[in-house]
Specification:
This protein has helices at 6-22, 32-41, 50-68. It is an all-alpha fold. The chain has three helices and no strands. Helix 1 (6-22) packs antiparallel against helix 2 (32-41). The radius of gyration is 12 Å and the shape is globular.
């Protein structure tokens, strides 16, 4: 996946996060941490900070899932 352009990799991370929030089985094998790492590695130029904010959002969802105990939102 590292060969894919940054924008494509970031878009995959956003899509995976949305699917994980919906509980779709296709992405349940991917943790929030893996999704955040993928997005973080594809931030590229982020002059407005939106991509960094997305990574923080995924990390926050990860923390909330742990508190909830279910591992899923």
């Amino acid at each position: 996946m590292q060969a894919a352009p940054l924008d494509a990799r970031f878009a995959v991370a956003v899509a995976a996060f949305g699917q994980r929030l919906r509980g779709e089985p296709q992405v349940m094998g991917y943790s929030h941490a893996e999704i955040a790492d993928l997005a973080n590695g594809a931030r590229g130029v982020d002059s407005e900070g939106y991509r960094a904010e997305f990574v923080r959002l995924v990390r926050q969802a990860e923390a909330l899932a742990k508190v909830g105990g279910s591992g899923q939102p």
